[in-house]
TrEMBL record:
<dbReference type="Pfam" id="PF01037">
    <property type="entry name" value="AsnC_trans_reg"/>
</dbReference>
<feature type="domain" description="Transcription regulator AsnC/Lrp ligand binding">
    <location>
        <begin position="6"/>
        <end position="76"/>
    </location>
</feature>
<protein>
    <submittedName>
        <fullName>Lrp/AsnC family transcriptional regulator</fullName>
    </submittedName>
</protein>
<dbReference type="InterPro" id="IPR011008">
    <property type="entry name" value="Dimeric_a/b-barrel"/>
</dbReference>
<dbReference type="InterPro" id="IPR019887">
    <property type="entry name" value="Tscrpt_reg_AsnC/Lrp_C"/>
</dbReference>
Length: 94
């Protein structure tokens, strides 16, 4: 699986509609509206890198109101729960 984070700039008057349209696209797992330099952040999960080429420029960028995208491919995932589980290996619950 390939995980990616897509930073999206959108026209201010179409953010809610663009966010919902993006969320409805297969391969998009979550969409967040946010403050800052980008208007929306989409979390994407696809089977292969080539699928990103179809998804981002082929679908997300064509959603009405989307002005620009910036895609970041995730190499590795880290979380507090994963770290705690790794350090707990071999410890008995007493």
């Amino acid at each position: 699986m390939v995980n990616a984070i897509v930073l999206i700039q959108a026209a201010a008057d179409s953010i809610p509609e663009a966010a919902q349209a993006i969320a409805d696209i297969d391969g998009v797992t979550e969409v967040y509206s946010c403050a800052g330099e980008v208007d929306l952040i989409a979390l994407v999960r696809v089977a292969q890198h080539e699928d990103l080429a179809d998804l981002v420029p082929g679908r997300i960028s064509k959603v009405p109101g989307v002005l620009n995208t910036d895609t970041h491919i995730a190499f590795r995932s880290y979380s507090r729960r994963q770290a705690e589980a790794a350090f707990a290996i071999g410890l008995d619950d007493d």
